[in-house]
Write a structure and sequence with these properties.
Structural class: alpha+beta
Radius of gyration: 24 Å
Number of strands: 4
Helix content: 40-55%
Number of helices: 8
Number of domains: 3
CATH architecture of the largest domain: Orthogonal Bundle
Shape: globular
Order of helices and strands: EEHEEHHHHHHH
């Protein structure tokens, strides 16, 4: 991770903005042209990029800028010793032995989740391949905007300064995913309608409780918020899709391939 001092000068107005930001080089947290210039740089090194196009949230050009950067520090990850003290500090248990057991259980659950996700992705891919139809542009643009906002939120959470991201490139990158998302929802909606799938009150209560736990609210507060924001209908539609997908997957025969071992080893 690098800590950067930056100065951004608007070439049209001459207005300048400066400050500090951090980024993990090589993980596309910064614009490609900036990351390219930062590769191999050390503490104290300076970088200047001229005539950089800025984009707004819709991916439209919003002017040109000159960007000056100085590498304030470069940090590398240092891994701690795995012992009882580390287990306690990390909240994994009183001893490293108990921490290992907990980690094994979490890994097992994680692998099961990955397996389920892989099956879901395979089913979704096949359904989309089997159903070819045009995607309404209004819904597509809305989905792209949602994906861009989610990506920006993730970067912000990581402490990345998002004011100078290349939103146009980001939207282009996320467009195929947006198309698949919209198509998949259409397919599940149609399946749920044909099969008469409807969520029970128990299904709704369970989902409300999950949301309440995630947002650290009481179920009563979460239900009130959903009503006030007119989102209960959206939640019910999401549950319908989940149940439709579960019904489809229940009819799928999963064949797991065994990895072929090299006979020479």
């Amino acid at each position: 991770m690098v800590l950067l001092e930056y100065e951004v000068e608007d070439k049209e107005s001459g207005e300048k903005d400066s400050g500090e930001t951090s980024a993990v080089v090589g993980q596309n947290t910064l614009r490609q042209e900036i990351e390219k210039e930062l590769l191999g740089k050390r503490e104290g090194d300076k970088v200047e990029l001229d005539d950089i196009t800025l984009y707004d949230m819709e991916g439209k050009p919003a002017g040109k800028a000159r960007i000056r950067l100085r590498v304030k520090s470069v940090k590398e990850k240092v891994f701690p010793e795995l012992n009882d003290d580390f287990a306690k500090e990390a909240g994994l248990g009183e001893t490293w032995q108990s921490a290992e057991e907990r980690i094994r259980q979490e890994v097992k659950e994680s692998l099961e989740g990955i397996r389920k996700n892989l099956i879901t992705e395979a089913v979704a891919k096949k359904l989309i391949e089997l159903h070819e139809f045009p995607v309404p542009q209004t819904l597509l643009l809305k989905e792209v905007s949602h994906l861009v906002e989610s990506r920006v939120s993730q970067l912000t959470y990581m402490g990345i300064d998002t004011r100078y991201l290349d939103y146009k490139s980001m939207a282009k990158e996320l467009m195929p995913q947006a198309v698949q998302n919209v198509k998949f929802r259409f397919i599940l909606d149609k399946y749920a309608k044909e099969k008469g799938i409807e969520p029970s009150e128990e299904d709704i209560n369970k989902k409300v409780e999950e949301l309440a736990k995630a947002y650290q609210r009481t179920p009563e507060d979460m239900r009130r918020i959903l009503h006030e924001e007119d989102l209960l209908g959206v939640l019910i539609e999401d549950i319908k899709r989940e149940k439709a997908l579960e019904d489809i997957i229940s009819k799928v025969v999963v064949k797991e391939k065994e990895e072929k071992k090299d006979e020479n080893t």
